[in-house]
Amino acid sequence: MSEAQPPAQALRPPAARIAGEPRGGYLRAVAAVVWKDLVAELRSRELLGAMLVFALLVILIFNFALELDVRTRATITSGVLWVTFAFAGTLGLNRSMAIEKDRGCLDGLLLAPVDRSAIYFGKVIGNLAFMLIVAAIVLPTYSALYNTNLFRPGLLLVILLGSIGYVVVGTLLAAMAVQARTRDVLLPILLFPVVLPVLVAAVKASNGFLQDLPLAEILPWVNLLIVYDVIFAAVSLMVFDFVVEE
Amino acid sequence: MEASPKALRGLTWLTAALFAVALYMVLFYAPREMVMGDVQRVFYFHVAAGWVGALAFLVTAVTGGIYLARKDRRWDNVATASVEIGVVFTLINIVSGSIWARPIWNTWWTWDPRLVTATIMELIYVAYLMLRQGIEDPDRRARFGSVYGILGFLSVPLTFLSIRIFRTIHPVVVGSGDPTAEGAFDMTPRMLQAFMFSLLTFSFLYATLLWHRVRLGRLSEKVEQLKMKVLSA
Amino acid sequence: MLQQAPADTFTYMVLGFAVILGAIALFLVSLAVRARNLKRDLVLLAELEKSEKA
Question: Could you tell me if residue B64 is inside a domain?
Fold first, then answer.
């Protein structure tokens, strides 16, 4: 299995110092959290591996379950993509938080003289990175398998906005779910009803861009995404303290 | 737990009386609707139940926020009590809505924004209760409940909005042609009276049930504390 | 213009009210049962406490 994760200090990029530089210190703290997760992941590759395999399997299952002929596929693609992202994202969120809890890293982080929100942002950025990496693999794979070009700027923007909304709430809820008895099954139950507006808007907006619908039809969805991202980033940030305090 | 305080007993009787009157108004006083017939009478309590569900959720979110600020578990007790009542009444709202829809549109389910939002709200309620169930420590349980209550409550209007936009751009093909219709009909004065009275009655019902459930929660807490004291001695 | 008679939806109305009243009744019963069980527990625990002190 994977080796024990070395303490956060050993993984911090050499130039970072937390104490003594207020604003720079905050950003460095965020960077430290992100760095810790990325380096740990690079060494073990468990998380990313699991998310990727899962995502590819989901695409495969959809292929057989829905029998996507060329015409239907055009209307269904965005839905398939987002279901894939949603479920792979759940895996990533769960694991990312479980690692913290199981190896006691969360306690270590909390002891650091750093604003709790820095931890929150660090985890959000880390989770977001993972989701985007999954998207970066899924898009070309889907494009290749079905001979369609998914690399449109509009779609990429929607994937970014949607992932942000998903991860911003997901990180917070994962931090709670991981401390409950029913941890694995609880996160989707908590997350999906709350993040539904994001998924609906993301699917509709993605579909709009993929099918070259007029911008006026797509804009309300993009607006909804932005509004959601802003509201939930703000609220999650405010309540994160209550979730990790002991 | 001592016998209910006088005020609560008075309130309970008052609510029961109001309910009896509301039932009379809805079943007899209000005229039979011209097109839908008798099933339309379900509408009065259907909407009132939906109102209670939404109110209950608001109370949960607010008392959760107060708990986070004050760390007084009594607020958390109110939040939990409110969620339970909300679950029951939202379910009543959904099922009665379904029963009303069936003879009108010949379907048990319509993708009406309000119905879908109510269902999602119910799912959030249930998730709230499942979250609480999975946590042993009462303080952590209260904290997490409060956080989720607030997040959940905030997401509901956004969900409603997204489904509304969804339906405006893509009107539903099966069922009612008008995506915003929920069995629209004009209300005569008597119907309006029955409607308003139902809302009033159900509000009283909510307050009464909440009070009773809060007392139950306090009793439960007392038992838990005594249990710990006695069994650890 | 001829007015149609209202649809006969009486059975659905009965079903609807049965569900509404039934659900409220069930909730009330659940409250009562839980209260009774808790009171019983309280009495039991109080006796246990007394016997432990003795």
Answer: yes
User: Chains with ≥3 Cβ pairs under 8 A against A?
Assistant: B
CA dist., res. A205 & res. A229, Å (int):
15
Of all residues in chain B, the percent with pLDDT exceeding 90 is 63
Residue B48 lies in a domain: yes
Determine whether the interchain pair B88/C38 forms a contact, defined as Cβ–Cβ distance below 8 Å: no
Residue corresponding to tokens 């029951």: B88
Average pLDDT in chain A: 82
Residues linked to residue B33 through DSSP beta bridges, in sequence order? B37
Number of folded domains in chain B?
1
What rounded mean pLDDT belongs to chain B?
A: 88
Both structure tokens of C51: 């016997």
Q: Is residue B211 part of a domain?
A: no
- What is the pLDDT at residue A2? 43
Q: B122, B162, B164, B167: which to substitute to probe chain A, counting the most A Cβ within 10 Å?
A: B162
SS3 of A121-170: HHHHHHHHHHHHHHHHHHHHHHHHHHCCCCCCHHHHHHHHHHHHHHHHHH
pTM for the whole structure: 0.86
Question: Taking CB atoms and an 8 Å limit, are B155 and A193 in contact across chains?
Answer: yes
B184 pLDDT band, cuts 50/70/90, is: low
Q: Is residue B191 part of a domain?
A: no
CA-to-CA dists, residue A231 to A80, A195, B35, angstroms: 27, 12, 44
Contacts of A241 in chain B (CB under 8 A): none
A6: Cβ contacts below 8 Å, ≥ 6 apart = none
CB contact under 8 A, B166 and A189: no
| Per-residue pLDDT tens over the stretch A53-88 | 888 888 888 877 877 677 777 778 888 899 999 988
* DSSP H helical ranges for B134-185: 138-169
> Residue B89: what residue type?
F
C4-41: b (≥16 Cβ within 10 Å) or e: eebbebeebbebbbebbeebbeebeeebeeebeebeeb
Full residue range of the structural domain in which residue B94 is found: 41-172
Give the ipTM of the model, two decimals please. Answer: 0.86
Percent of chain A predicted with pLDDT > 90: 28
For residue B71, what is the nearest residue in chain A, using CA coordinates?
A242
d(CA A195, CA B201): 34
> Half-sphere exposure (CA, 13 Å, Cβ side) for A217?
17
